[in-house]
Amino acid sequence: MNKSEIICICGSTRFADHHAILRWELEKQGKICLMINYLPLWYAEEQGWNGNDHFGEQSGMKEHLDELHLRKIDLADRVYVVNPGGYIGESTRREIEYAEQKGKPVIYLEGDNSE
Predict the structure, then answer these.
(1) What is the dihedral of CA 53, 58, 60, 63, to 10 degrees?
(2) Of 103, 110, 57, 104, which Cα lies nearest the Cα of 82?
(3) What are the pLDDT digits (tens) for 29-86?
(4) Residue 13: what pLDDT?
(5) Cα separation, 102 vs 38, whole angstroms
(6) CA 11/CA 33 separation, integer angstroms
(7) What is the pTM for the complete model shown?
(8) Domain spans of the chain?
(9) What DSSP letter does each residue of the chain carry, written as one string?
(10) Which residues have a Cβ under 8 Å from the Cβ of 39 and sit 6 or more positions away?
(11) What do you get for the CA distance between the two ends of the chain, in Å?
(12) How far apart are CA 38 and CA 20, in angstroms?
């Protein structure tokens, strides 16, 4: 059996639905996907968090979770950036730069917005 490619999915938490669909499509192809965890809104509400994203900031865990995501990039064969409308936030830009420094190929859902 061939080794499955490992892909780290990066992008803003505001695009959770896009991340989930991409993971589904890639895993149907036999890829292994690493990405951030998405929590259901009911759980966030139980924790006293507002909205449906940025739970890392609201929980006080952003720096820790950001560091874990870099380790996921270390494990990956390539990085796939979810960037509907071309949007790339500060955290995602940092992850792209890290991946490029590590020599990981980076592909984008919508074009190459690395400039």
Answers:
(1) 30
(2) 110
(3) 999 999 987 777 787 778 777 765 566 665 666 788 889 999 999 999 999 999 999 9
(4) 82
(5) 26
(6) 13
(7) 0.85
(8) 6-108
(9) -PPPPEEEEEE-GGGHHHHHHHHHHHHHTT-EEE------HHHHHHHT--SSS-HHHHHT-HHHHHHHHHHHHHH-SEEEEE-GGG---HHHHHHHHHHHHTT--EEESSS----
(10) 55
(11) 39
(12) 9
Which two three-digit tokens encode residue 25?
Answer: 């499509």
Place of tokens 């990039």: 73
Dist. CA 9–CA 106, nearest whole Å = 10
* Length of the chain measured in residues: 115
Vertex 101: Cα angle to 106 and 34 (nearest 5): 50
